[in-house]
User: What shape does this take?
Amino acid sequence: MHRHPHVLNAASNLLGICFVLIGALKFTRSDATSFADETAWLSAALFLTSIVASYAAIRSNEANRLQNLTADIAFFGGVAMLALAMVITAVVL
Assistant: This one.
């Protein structure tokens, strides 16, 4: 069975980084003063979408371009949102 490269591992790791960032903002009580936690939550949602689409593409027996495209777009959107959340966090802290 031929499998295309998937973003499942990277999206899973970056989802964990989103939760660390959200926890750090809560711990320092900086979540109320910026949009960094909301941006990180959006990033986490995009990474979760990427994880689900990537897993569905792996489990599928036929090549489904829509699942792969959804996983890729959600992954890159999550990376962009996570980078924005990190910039906001750096400015606030």
Remarks:
- The mean pLDDT is 87.
- The radius of gyration is 15 Å.
- The chain has one domain: 8-92.
- DSSP finds three helices and no strands in the chain.
